[in-house]
Structures are given as structure tokens and as C-alpha cells.
Amino acid sequence: MNTSYPYDADLHEAGSEAARGGCSYHQEHHDTGAGGCAGEAVVSYQDRQGHWQSGCSAALERLVADGEIEALGQGA
Ligand SMILES: [Zn+2]
To answer: Which of 44, 47, 61, 72 is surrounded by the most beta carbons within 10 Å?
Structure first.
């Protein structure tokens, strides 16, 4: 399970959706429709390939529920 961090634009590749404050989780999953993405990134985390990703509040809940990342404020 990966550590999660409060969203920090500096962790993300310049010019990427994540660096702009968007949610790369839902962008990557092509799931930005109604009820899917909350839009604004609240968490930064590294995926299984070690790439920095950002997630909105819905993505954060999903990732924690799936055991992909720790809940914010834990572990670090
Ligand atoms: Zn999202």
C-alpha cells in the first residue's frame, strides 16, 4: 500500500492534468462523467509503477477502499 500526501502540485510533472490541480486518477480511468470525478485534486500518491498521480475526493475514497493507498494523515 502506498503512502498518500495532501495534494501538492510540485510533485507532479509540469503541464500535466495533475500539476494543474486536476484529477489524474479519473482522467486515466476515463471516468470523468457525472457522479465520477469531483474535479479538484485533494491527494497526491504514487501508483504501482511509481508515477505520481493526483486524485479528487471521490478517487481518494476509492483508492483507500481498494487498498491502493493509505488514508490521508496515516503512515507518513
Ligand atoms: Zn476524480
So the answer is: 44
Distance CA 42, CA 58 (A): 9
- Provide mean pLDDT across the span 5-27: 95
Q: How far is the CA of 76 from the centre of ligand 1 (A)?
A: 23
Which strand (E) or helix (H) includes residue 26?
helix 24-28
| Model confidence, pTM | 0.86
| Number of Cα atoms under 13 Å in the Cβ half of residue 25 | 28
Task: Mark 27-41 as b/e (b = at least 16 C-beta within 10 Å).
Answer: beeeeeeeebbbeeb
Going from the Cα of 18 to the center of ligand 1, the distance in angstroms, rounded, reads 10
**pLDDT digit string, tens, across residues 43-58:** 999 999 999 999 999 9
What are 4's three cell numbers? 498518500
